[in-house]
Amino acid sequence: MRKAIFVLTFFTVFAVMAAETEFSGFADTFNAASFKHGDMTASRTRFRGKLNVYYGDTSMFASINAENNGLSDESVIKLHEAYMEMQIRDYNLRVGKQLIIWGNSDGFRLTDMICPLDMTEFVTQDFDDTRIPISAVNISTMKGPVELQIIGIPTFSESEFPLQDSPWHYVPNNMKGMKIQDDKPENKLQDSEAAFKAAFYFSRIDFAVSGLYVWTDSPLHKINGDNLVACFRRQKVIGIESSCTIGKYVLRSENTVHFEEYMEKENYAGFKKKHFLKSLSGLDWYPGEDWNLSGQLYSEVILDYAVDLNKDEIETTITLNVEKKLMNQMLDISAMTYYNINQKDMYNKFLITYDFNDNISAEIGIDVFSGEEGTYSNQSDNSQIRTKLKYSF
């Protein structure tokens, strides 16, 4: 709260001096209830104000969230983003709390590992809303068709997960009742994170190479007596991605290699280090008349596999998304399916969105979790119907 007030005051003073300012934002309300029990699984009302301030080659941006959670009846005001951006010759420098989005996959994290995630409502939030801004120094430059980007992250940030009183909170049976101990980085200089990316843009094909030296933002777990230890470990990752347009089709590929990745052992008995591969292939088809069809094949492969690991040697998930716009693109109907072949569980998301005008939109949809076992099936009781009303300005 104090940080939000300080930043807003600083921006107000800067805005008085600036040549141009812009204020925008939105207010929305979201509610959801489970099919099985009729209980509310989510209820929140949010206001986000965004301020852009321009002064020559320097600009500043800040956004503040004011949110009320209807389930816990708690309200909070907090800073969302706040950064300064400067153009210095051919280089763009952005310093402060910001969102950094990498990769070209839909709903999966491969190279998109810079920002942690808000998983307090599992996977049901819009993917763009799940990223948590981080404090970073972000330097980029364009040299013809090549964009170079270097990111330094001085402080560690972790993902957010459901609290114990949340309907989305899930604990495996062998972990219930255990006290949780944290094993986190100490935010010293040697605990900083870094990433680089070289992207190449041509008329029909784009591709990029990236490298990341970061921390896991979701904890790994091990059982130590009566305690459950939540551990965060280093990740060393190389990524390659590409996107190619062929007529009405877009071919996408994204791949990462994780070197000496920490893996949970079976029954959370400890960790082992293994090289690890992630691979995604996607195909988007735009046949016309506002149809959009896309499919993805996502795989994780553990090299030099050991039978006492808590994961399969190869794990595969497929997705399918169908979208149709009607009524001069005012009505949007979409259906997306995630199916994990190993666990045989599934997540289906159906949405209908109607734009009354440029400012007001309404959404109704359902989220269905099913399967025999696995992450999605664990949330089967939370299959829900959802509504959202949004006003943008």
Word description of this protein:
By secondary structure, the protein is mainly beta. Helices cover 5% and strands 59% of the residues. It has an 18-stranded antiparallel beta barrel. It has a three-stranded mixed beta sheet with strand order 8-12-11, with no helix packed on it.
Rg: 22 Å
Major beta-sheet overview: 18 strands, antiparallel, barrel
Mean pLDDT, all residues: 94
Oligomer: single chain
Count helical runs.
Answer: 2
Estimate the global geometry from the Cα principal axes.
globular
Number of strands: 21
Q: Would you identify the regions where 5 or more consecutive residues have pLDDT less than 50?
A: none
Structural class: mainly beta
Give the % helix: under 10%
Q: SSE string, helix = H, strand = E?
A: HEEEEEHEEEEEEEEEEEEEEEE
Distance between the termini: 24 Å
Task: Give the secondary structure arrangement, pairings included.
Elements: H1 2-17, E1 20-34, E2 40-55, E3 58-69, E4 74-88, E5 91-98, H2 127-130, E6 134-143, E7 146-153, E8 179-183, E9 193-201, E10 205-215, E11 220-224, E12 227-231, E13 234-246, E14 249-264, E15 271-288, E16 291-302, E17 314-326, E18 331-340, E19 345-355, E20 360-371, E21 384-392
Parallel strand pairs: 8-12
Antiparallel strand pairs: 1-2, 1-21, 2-3, 3-4, 4-5, 5-6, 6-7, 7-9, 9-10, 10-13, 11-12, 13-14, 14-15, 15-16, 16-17, 17-18, 18-19, 19-20, 20-21
